[in-house]
Amino acid sequence: MNPAMNSALNSGMAPVATPWFFYALAGLAVASGLAVITRRNAVHSALALIVTLLSVAGLYLMLYAPFVAGVQIIVYAGGIMVLFLFVIMLVNIERSSKDRQFNRMWPVGLAAACALLALFVSVIVKGKAVLNDPITGKALWPDPMRLPESSNTQQVAAMLYGQAGRMGEYTFAFEIASLLLLVAILGAVIMTKKKI
Amino acid sequence: MAEITTLHYLVVAAALFVLGVIGVLTRRNVVIVLMSIELILNAVNLNLVAFSRMWGNLHGQLFAIFIVVDAAAEAAVGLGILIAFFRNKETINVDEIDLLKW
């Protein structure tokens, strides 16, 4: 990135993603996340989860991660959620929507989750200083130029597949991930067969 | 309005994570339990991408992509198990899955 462009970006254009976008997307994500775990009908839960996934994809865009946002929309909202809806249609029984939605131990589960929330709050409150630069005391939040949006996909590809004949940092992990997917496909097929 | 920093994203991710944990621990429907696990994985991904932004490198985003791969594998196998179980017992409630209970 040349300095001229950098200064032009810093001075002239106001960022498109304002704090309002963040609060709207975060509120939408949390509200529909709440709907996921409270709806009686599993289809409604799945639709609420799709809304959560899409708003988290919007948050990724605000974090200058367009490739991850695209993966989130295509793989999660497009692939995994279709699988979920398909299975809900397969196993949905009338009875299950009429009887109890929460198991008998739900107060214990809720208490455990509240303890976890307290832990998170204390970690965030006590660890706040870690997120700040030790010298300036300002929030560690690099200039957007250090994560250029336009070449994000290119850089991710270079780290995954390697560049100029060299292996990337994550090429081996990528191969293992493909092996994992192969095993998962085999597992799913064998699991759902009537007779092996 | 103040600038959005890593901390804001951490708070959102913590909220999503706790919602997912509540879903896993209290719901009876296995499909919704699996969806809550997806919620937890999303919270982790959001943290990773926020930290990736904070440090100005792409390692967090790469990890997030691998976690998406993992989530896909988990959903496929989990739902496969669910279908196999439903075929045998005609139920998808967690507390009725007790064949291995002694």
In a nutshell, what does this entry contain?
Chain A is mainly alpha-helical and 196 residues long. Chain A is built from eight helices and no strands. Chain A has helices at residues 3-11, 19-38, 42-62, 66-91, 94-98, 106-126, 152-161, 171-192.
Give a structural overview.
The complex is a heterodimer of chains A (196) and B (102). Chain A is globular and about 60 Å long. Among the domains of chain A are: 18-95, NADH-ubiquinone/plastoquinone oxidoreductase chain 6, subunit NuoJ (Four Helix Bundle (Hemerythrin (Met), subunit A), Up-down Bundle), CATH 1.20.120.1200; 150-196, no CATH class. Mean pLDDT of chain A is 82; it is low at 1-13. Chain A is mainly α and 196 residues long. Helices cover 68% and strands 0% of the residues of chain A. Chain A contains eight helices and no strands. Chain B has helices at residues 6-26, 30-55, 59-89. Chain B is elongated, with a radius of gyration of 17 Å. Chain B has 102 residues and is mainly alpha-helical. In chain B, helix 1 packs antiparallel against helix 2 (30-55) and helix 2 (30-55) packs antiparallel against helix 3 (59-89). Chains A and B meet through helix 2, helix 3, helix 4, helix 6 and helix 7 of A and helix 1, helix 2 and helix 3 of B.
How many domains would you count in the coordinates of chain B? Answer: 1
Q: Mind describing the biggest β-sheet of chain B?
A: none
| Class derived from helix and strand content of chain A | mainly alpha
The protein's oligomeric status is heterodimer
H and E string of chain A: HHHHHHHH
Q: Give the CA-CA distance, first to last residue of chain B.
A: 58 Å
Provide keyphrases for this structure.
heterodimer, A: 196 residues, mainly alpha, Four Helix Bundle (Hemerythrin (Met), subunit A), 68% helix, disordered N terminus, B: 102 residues, Helix Hairpins, 3 helices, 76% helix, 0% strand
